[in-house]
Design brief:
Helix content: under 10%
CATH superfamily: monomeric porin ompg
Low-confidence stretches: 1-25
Order of helices and strands: HEEEHEEEEEEEEE
CATH architecture: Beta Barrel
Number of domains: 1
Number of helices: 2
Largest sheet: 12 strands, antiparallel, barrel
CATH topology: Porin
Shape: globular
Length: 269
């Protein structure tokens, strides 16, 4: 025979089993795990004897993604020095050796970027960067960016991204250039692709265009392409080519620079 107490007991048990009942809390969604990546790369060539020179290429790439945020830092060095055959006779004399090494390449750069995501494929970003390249006429160049990034394709093999933004640069030139500095305000467009051919071989390419909004004749284009072959879970070999074209270069300097490198990459995290 059912009593009021037994009915109440059965009802409370049923409500406890029904997760849709308004009085019960729905299970909370598990927050995405934070992701950290850190890799370093190094390439080096050194010659002694009849010729004396060395070239160093090194880079660092770090990023940390948590919730709807991502912070990244990338930097690099391209350094070269050589003993110069000043008289052009085809050999290094003792006097020329005594003069020591002279720089043949000197570029150092660093960029830091923060992305705030809304949705899985969209983000707003801010970026700050700096570089020095005396062989292109720059004592140093600092720049700041703000813009919008959109992932057009994102799957296990291919990622395609497009970006639109604004860039403000403060350029300071090497001694002898007049005027010695300038401020450049430019619109920026980027298209980048990463593609994995298989588990061991991947291709990457990033094309950027800058249009000076105050002087439309000043157009800049950069492109960086690379192929990476995995040697193990942590180590890989990377072949890369970078191109920098400036329609209005620093006075007295060429408008096109190209660099090809082979580097050993270590994935630390």
């Amino acid at each position: 025979m059912f009593t009021l107490s037994s009915i109440a007991l059965i009802t409370s048990a049923a409500l406890a089993e029904d997760s849709t009942f308004a009085g019960t809390a729905a299970p909370a969604e598990e927050a995405p795990k934070a992701e950290t990546d850190l890799s370093a790369e190094l390439g080096f060539a050194w010659t002694t004897g009849n010729t004396m020179n060395y070239t160093l290429n090194a880079g660092l790439n770090a990023s940390h993604k948590w919730s709807k945020n991502k912070l990244g830092v990338v930097g690099g060095v391209n350094q070269g020095q050589s003993m110069v055959d000043g008289d052009g006779d085809g050999q290094l004399s003792d006097a020329e050796r005594d003069l020591g090494y002279s720089p043949t390449a000197k570029r150092v750069f660093v960029d830091a970027r923060y992305d705030r995501f809304f949705g899985e494929k969209n983000s707003l970003y801010v970026l700050g960067g700096w570089f020095t390249d005396t062989f292109a006429g720059y004592d140093y160049r600092a720049h700041e960016q703000i813009g919008y990034s959109r992932q057009l394709v994102s799957n296990d093999k291919t990622k395609l991204v497009a970006e639109l933004g604004a860039d403000v640069a403060q350029e300071n030139y090497v001694e002898g250039i007049d005027p010695g500095s300038a401020v450049i305000v430019a619109a920026r467009v980027l298209v980048g692709v990463d593609h994995k051919f298989n588990e061991n071989v991947a291709f990457s390419d990033k094309l950027e265009a800058y249009e000076n909004v105050l002087s439309p004749a000043d157009f800049r284009l950069t492109n960086t392409a690379s192929i990476t072959a995995s040697l193990s879970d942590r180590f890989s070999l990377k072949l890369s080519h970078s191109l920098a074209f400036d329609n209005v270069p620093v006075e007295g300097y060429r408008n096109l620079d190209q660099t090809s490198t082979a580097t050993f990459v270590a994935s630390i995290l």
